[in-house]
Amino acid sequence: ASMAPLPAQARDAMTTLLLEQSESIYLNMNRWLANIAQTRKLAAKITGAKAEEIAFIRNTSDGVSIVASGIRWKKGDEIIINDLEFPSNVYPWLNLERLGVKIVKVESKDGIVSPSMLIKHVTPKTKLLAISSVQFSTGYRVDLATLGQMARDQDFLFFVDAIQSLGVLPMDVKEFGIDFLSCGGHKWLCAPEGIGIFFCDESRLDLLDLTRLGWNSVENNLNFSNIDFTIKKTAGRFEEGTTNLVGLYGLQASLELLLEKGIERNEEHVLNLNEHLRHRLAGMGYKILSPQDEKRRSGIVIFSTADPSQNEMLVKKLANEKVLVIERGGGVRVSPHFFNTMEDIDRLLSLL
Fold first, then answer.
1. 263-351 domain in CATH 3.90.1150.10?
2. pLDDT digits (tens, 9 = 90+) for 91-138
3. Torsion angle (degrees, nearest 10) of CA 266, 271, 276, 278
4. CATH classification number, 8-261, choose in 3.40.50.150, 3.40.50.720, 3.50.50.60, 3.40.640.10
5. What are the alphabetically sorted keywords of the record (predicted)?
6. 3-state SS string for 103-148
């Protein structure tokens, strides 16, 4: 949930590319372009999108900003967010207040912000709802399908920050009615930093003005001698310049690994690990801060000692034993992935 270890496959793919670039410059350009296209298909598969609806971005904030700066806002438009969001999914929206856009921040309760809590704040002026698929500070798994239906019924746009779920929990942007999705690669996707996935539903492409343009935003982008300002008809229009090819090679290898294992399998495995962790922690007297409702559980479990002031010391103690957890949401956040085992969880418990 913070930064995943880079799989050997991703490391090796990136190293191979760097060796190619040091020895042959871009004599392998055709293969590079083919790998970009293949990675786009993999990104579409893991999100439930079409390849033409996928763009590669630098990080989650990049995708949020594409939407926030691209929509033609009117004074009085309303955007619904909540008080659990990571800053990446807050600041780009707050920046719109200078345009007269109203930011409606819904207050959570016990680490939860449910559809019933959000719908109370929908008005005829609601333009967009922005929310994370899983909340970083509680592990609360949002009911995306209900929110997507609500967006369609009430006629507003639906934006999802998927960085705390994509790769470990199933995602289907079409089934969930998502208009825009952004996800950096370095968490549950197990990719390097500096590369991520952006989804824009094909029906929403023209809702976003291009605030960044370059040679790669247009059709026939490799014909440098002919200036033809015809914007791409795909989400590729948001990739305005040279691709982070090294990062993309890492992303490709990580996506292949995740999809080979199967996202549903990853979900089942991680939830089983976390159920074991929850049960043992409760028996040891620790307080579970993450949601108890099974349908709202994710890859994140947050717990606290009886004296929360001791959490920081506990995190440092575990780090000294090479067990990586982090302080979040008033407790200690644990976030195992598909590569972790029950033995890993039991070792954590033994150290506690």
1. yes
2. 999 999 999 999 999 999 999 999 999 999 999 999 999 999 999 999
3. 140
4. 3.40.640.10
5. Pyridoxal phosphate, Transferase
6. EEEECCECCECCHHHHHCCCCCCEEEEEEECECCCCCCECCHHHHH
